[in-house]
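Our working data are protein records whose layout never changes between entries. Getting from the letters to the tokens is the skill we practise here. To make this concrete, we reproduce a full record directly below:
***
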Amino acid sequence: MASYFSILLFILTVTTGLIWLLDAVLWAPKRKQKLAAASGATQLDLEDEVKRRIAPQHPVAEFAESVFPVIAFVFVLRSFLYEPFQIPSGSMMPTLLVGDFILVEKYSYGLRNPIANEMLVEFDPPERGDIAVFKFPKNPNLDYIKRVVGLPGDRIIYRNKYLYIQKACPQVEKCEQKFEEMEKVLVERAEFQQGPYKLDRYVEDLAGVKHDVLLSYRLPDMTAQYYRQSATARRDEWIVPEDSYFVLGDNRDNSEDSRYWGFVPKANLVGKAVFIWTSFEFGRDEDSALPSWIPTNVRFSRIGKIPGASDSAAIEATALSQESVNE
């Protein structure tokens, strides 16, 4: 289902385009005939102001002619190339923060009909580690953003804050069926806070894709609320169906993701987040005279590509300090 804005943009594009076309095909030739007759009668070159008085263009046609190229450009750009999104929640912290405005590459996984949301041309499927925007399966009017963790055929376990993946084995190959733990390295303790709980920053190695996550071992896993799949015996274990994906938020203890509602069908994919084009802070006091939606600061340092894993030098130093403590 297309968003209301996409439908409105499509209607405006078609309407202004038709008016512009009718003017160019039907009404513009008649205006030219009037001007030619007037010029022939006077034997003079008419000034622009005189031409407008003799053969005026209808205001609606004039407006359509001026705005159609802009609207058409925005429609094509937003529907097939890049679409802006705002990050409204902290489920993808620390990678994406509340107030980040991102660009989503619409053609990463294929070209879709922007109205019917049907695939026109299919490209490469999502890769493990991609930050994907998709239509929420339970309410397609909502756009969600999460990290792709499980691919079709994968077996996933999320247990005691640890992520385990048993990769799908192609039928034409013989491969060892075993779970692989996605290793984590502590970067900084208590960097963020969620209510009364401190959140620690880790770098997780997602089968070769390193990225930051937030965890609090003081918060229990909400296993009783996890999505129950009939194909597995435990609530914290899932098998990703064909043409579907398992997604998680980087803020693992503050994210409504596949653990709670299941899988993302391929048909729901919108695109891949690739760039932060601006970032605002919203932190006004309740007694402020200005509305809360007015930014308090611009985070210029966040503008650019989507952040990856934390600095490797800091991680290595932390790992070495952990080894010395263990010794």
Q: What stands out?
A: The mean pLDDT is 87. DSSP finds five helices and 18 strands in the chain.
